[in-house]
Write a sequence for this structure.
């Protein structure tokens, strides 16, 4: 008599005498006589109930974490040690304008503002060396090229003592940075109005100050007459 194993496995649940539901992975073996006719069958089952329960719990936890990340207003990213994106949350994609297809092709080097790139890469290298990097402040570029000022925390993920990835939670401070710069310009213009010798030099200085916060090369200054009926472009 010959015994052959059918390698097709299947999953099936059974109820025990006490009423518990057990999940088993089954494998069947068939017995054949000398003429090749099947004369018997043996089924072997392996209890995987605990393993399946653990996997379901892990899946549920991952789903909950995904919901938490996606409902966060902060930008959350997970990148590999070679600066490839592993995960970004919904707020990250909405703020920067990149979709899943873009993220697959991009690396961190592609979205960091050139002026801030060297500093961020230096901080990441220190992080992977085991040094504490308490805070990062950087600027990312949106898909359309606009700068987004970010500040936040970053930590390192290890496998068997080797750094493999980093995770950052970043807060958008673009509006705060703009407000601070605008306030500085207001102060500068007020001081210029007091110290300038003539209107021409004052207008030129105002132009230079406004150029720091307004993305334009052309600024016009117009003065009205006493009756406010005519405009005179003084600059």
């Amino acid at each position: 008599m010959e015994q052959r194993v059918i390698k097709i496995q299947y999953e099936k649940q059974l109820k025990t005498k006490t009423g518990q539901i057990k999940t088993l992975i089954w494998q069947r073996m068939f017995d054949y006589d000398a003429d090749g006719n099947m004369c018997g069958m043996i089924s072997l089952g392996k209890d995987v109930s605990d393993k399946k329960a653990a996997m379901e719990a892990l899946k549920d936890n991952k789903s909950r974490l995904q919901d938490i990340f996606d409902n966060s207003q902060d930008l959350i990213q997970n990148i590999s040690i070679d600066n490839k994106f592993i995960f970004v949350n919904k707020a990250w994609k909405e703020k920067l304008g990149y979709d899943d297809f873009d993220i697959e092709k991009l690396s961190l080097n592609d979205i960091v503002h050139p002026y801030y790139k060297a500093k961020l890469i230096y901080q990441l290298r220190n992080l992977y060396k085991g040094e504490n990097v308490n805070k990062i402040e950087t600027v990312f570029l949106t898909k359309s090229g606009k700068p987004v000022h970010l500040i936040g925390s970053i930590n390192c993920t290890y496998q068997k003592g080797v750094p493999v990835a980093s995770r950052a939670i970043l807060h958008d401070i673009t509006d705060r940075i703009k407000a601070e710069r605008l306030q500085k310009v207001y102060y500068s213009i007020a001081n210029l109005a007091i110290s300038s010798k003539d209107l021409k030099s004052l207008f030129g200085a105002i132009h230079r100050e406004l150029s720091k916060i307004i993305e334009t090369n052309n600024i016009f200054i117009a003065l009205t007459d006493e009756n406010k009926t005519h405009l005179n472009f003084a600059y």
Q: What stands out?
A: The CA atoms of residues 211 and 217 lie 7 Å apart. The first helix runs from residue 49 to 71. The first strand starts at residue 2 and ends at 15.
